[in-house]
Amino acid sequence: MIKILYKINSLENLFTKYGNFSTDNNKLSGNISLIFKSNANDVLNQKFSVTENGLYLISATQRVTNTVDTSETVKILKNSELLTRHDFNIPIVNSRRETNVTLSTIVYLTTSDIVLITRSNCDYICRQRDLLIFKLI
Fold it and tell me: Measured between alpha carbons, how far is 17 from 79 in angstroms, rounded to an integer?
C-alpha cells in the first residue's frame, strides 16, 4: 500500500511541479523557481540552477539563425558535461537561415549543479527560446 501511495505522489509531482520560461528568463507559468546564472541579454546561453534536488525533465526549444551556410549546434550541459546535442545545417527561409530545434533530457539535479543550454548562433532579430522543466521526483 505504501508503494502505491508513493507512486501516486510521484505521478502527482509530474503534473504539479513544473515551470515554463521565456526568451528573457521570465516565468510564463508553473510553480518551479529557477536561479538564472546568465543575463537575459545573452542570446546564446541560458544558464540556471534548480532550488530543489530531484529528477527533472528539461525540454528546450531554441531558434537558431545565421546569414551563412554553416553547421550549427544546440546543446544541454550539466556542470560542463554534455547531456545531449543536435548538429544540423539551417535551411534558407526568406533569404535568411533560421530554424527551431527542441532538445529534451531527463537528469538528476542538485542545487549546486549548473545547467547550460547553448546554441551556436543567433541574432537579435530572431532570438526566441523556450524552456520547459518538470520535476519528476
Answer: 23
